[in-house]
Specification:
Blueprint (H helix, E strand, L loop, with lengths): L2 H13 L10 E12 L7 E12 L3 E6 L8 H23 L3 E5 L4 H4 L3 H7 L52 E2 L3 H11 L3 E7 L4 H4 L4 H6 L3 E10 L12 H15 L3 E2 L17
């Protein structure tokens, strides 16, 4: 076994090194991560390693990040509208398997203030969050300093008012919040140790929100990015001058190298009562 494979085995054991009740629902996912292999004869190489891992559904949550109804960028709005129905199928399947769903459309809480899902998460008992561990974040592989719109709009104005309506909210089970503290409280109340995060934008909110990947990793939470259910905010006129799709892929690679594994969200449809995704 190579050094990279040994390192990733350690990651998997650490990631899923929690005990669960025999017979409880489990979710099998294929994790992908990039592991750095040092070389004595030149630059270090990155090796992509995949492993199948199992986690208890009752200790797992899906966080849906900033899948708004409208964005100031027309291109971003169009891509979210295309992504939302596919995401909804995966979210329904995850819910049916016992995974907790947290909707996190930032800056839209007034829209949900009287809903059971919003009140459920607000009423979770307060639990102090661990301090963020020190970390220096490497620079992103794309230049998003222009705001990232590939359809010509200039940032920034608030265009959103709610989560995209194609993503269903189960008011009897789900939670709604854009607060890192509230989401932390809810996770502790539910005994959640594993977070699958999906939504937009990969290089911005997915990484940077108080419930995003950087904060979760620095607080010791086991995080996975659903790489097929995300999209970057990137204008291909900016460095490194690649397509929008390639820009998103570069950010996913960056996350796999520096923060956490990724998976295909569609894996949650396997053996689910919801069934496979319908062809579009």
């Amino acid at each position: 076994m190579s050094v990279a494979e040994q390192a990733f085995v350690l990651v998997v054991v650490t990631f899923f090194g929690t005990a669960w009740v025999a017979g409880a629902a489990e979710v099998r996912v294929t994790l992908r991560q990039q592991v750095k292999e040092d070389s004595e004869h030149g630059p270090a190489n990155w090796t992509t390693v995949t492993r199948v891992a199992t986690m208890p559904a009752e200790e797992t949550s899906v966080i849906i990040c900033d899948m708004w109804d409208k964005h100031w960028s027309r291109g971003a709005t169009e891509r979210v509208a295309e992504l939302a129905p596919r995401m909804n199928e995966v979210v329904k399947a995850a819910r049916s398997r016992g995974i907790t769903i947290i909707h996190a459309p930032s800056e839209t809480m007034n829209f949900y203030q009287d809903t059971p899902a919003r009140k459920r998460i607000m009423n979770a008992p307060h639990v102090d969050m661990p301090k963020l561990s020190p970390r220096i974040d490497p620079p992103l592989p794309i230049d998003d300093s222009d705001g990232g719109s590939d359809t010509g709009e200039k940032p920034w104005h608030k265009a959103w008012s709610r989560q995209h309506p194609a993503i269903e909210i189960d008011q009897a089970k789900d939670g709604i919040s854009d607060s890192g503290q509230e989401i932390w409280n809810f996770m502790q109340m539910k005994g959640i140790r594993n977070v699958i995060i999906m939504g937009v934008h990969t290089n911005m909110c997915i990484l940077g929100r108080p419930f995003g990947i950087r904060a979760m990793v620095r607080r010791g939470v086991n995080v996975i990015l659903a790489r097929d259910l995300t999209d970057a905010m990137y204008n291909s006129a900016m460095p490194p001058h690649v397509s929008h799709e390639e820009g998103t892929r570069l950010v996913v690679d960056y996350i796999e190298k520096n923060y956490c594994p990724t998976m295909l969200g569609e894996e949650l449809l396997q053996d689910s009562p919801i069934g496979p995704l319908r062809s579009s």
